[in-house]
Each structure stands twice: as structure tokens, then as C-alpha cells.
């Protein structure tokens, strides 16, 4: 029972993971629709352009879909830092916090 964290701290960490998991599931659905591949083929460490062969138009559409789904606006300069599927999840998480 080496867990010394306060119950509230554990709850916050669990809520954060739950939210990130939900965001990942939403991103996963969009990628599966766009690429027509199995969800099991997509992991957070996959590179969007290199591994998933996304072009700039597909990336733009993914961003628009996520902005609409989460009612957020992600600045273009921030999008330049996105490389992996996990980066997309982290960015959506950041802008929905």
C-alpha cells in the first residue's frame, strides 16, 4: 500500500487520465474515419505525417474537426509543434483545460 497521495490528489490524476483517454478515443475515431485503418493500428507515438502519411489538407481537416468537437481554437503556431498522435491529444487537452 505504498500510495501516500491524498485521496483528492489521486482523484485529480485519475480525472486527468480519464479526460486524456476520452480525447484519445475521439482523435482515434477521426483518424480511423480519415484513413480507413483499424483503431488497433494507431498508438500515441505514431507520427502523423511520417507514419500515418497525412498531408497538410488532412491535418487541417483533423484540426477543424477537433476544434468543432471541443469548441476550441488552436493557433497555427502551436500546430507546428505537433508531431505525434499523442501531441494532438495533449494539445486538445491543453486547450480544453
Would you kindly provide a written description of the structure presented here, covering whatever features stand out?
The chain has 97 residues and is mainly alpha-helical. The chain has one domain (7-96): ACP-like (Non-ribosomal Peptide Synthetase Peptidyl Carrier Protein, Chain A, Orthogonal Bundle), CATH 1.10.1200.10. It has helices at 7-35, 56-70, 76-79, 85-96. The longest helix is centred in the first third of the chain and has 29 residues, at 7-35.
Low-confidence stretches: none
How would you describe the shape? Answer: globular
**Largest beta sheet, briefly?**
none
CATH fold node name: Non-ribosomal Peptide Synthetase Peptidyl Carrier Protein, Chain A
Mean pLDDT: 87
CATH architectural name: Orthogonal Bundle
What is the CATH class designation? Mainly Alpha
Number of helices: 4
Quickly list its features:
62% helix, mainly alpha, 4 helices, 97 residues, 0% strand
Task: Give a brief outline of the structure.
The chain is mostly helical. It has four helices and no strands.
Helix and strand layout, with pairings?
Elements: H1 7-35, H2 56-70, H3 76-79, H4 85-96
Helix pairs in contact: 1-2, 1-4
Amino acid at each position: 500500500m505504498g500510495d501516500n497521495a491524498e485521496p483528492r490528489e489521486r482523484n485529480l490524476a485519475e480525472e486527468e487520465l480519464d479526460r486524456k483517454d476520452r480525447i484519445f478515443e475521439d482523435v482515434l475515431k477521426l483518424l480511423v474515419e480519415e484513413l480507413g485503418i483499424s483503431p488497433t493500428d494507431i498508438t500515441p507515438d505514431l507520427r502523423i505525417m511520417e507514419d500515418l502519411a497525412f498531408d497538410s489538407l488532412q491535418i487541417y481537416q483533423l484540426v477543424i474537426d477537433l476544434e468543432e468537437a471541443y469548441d476550441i481554437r488552436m493557433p497555427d503556431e502551436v500546430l507546428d509543434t505537433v508531431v505525434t498522435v499523442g501531441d494532438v491529444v495533449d494539445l486538445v487537452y491543453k486547450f480544453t483545460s
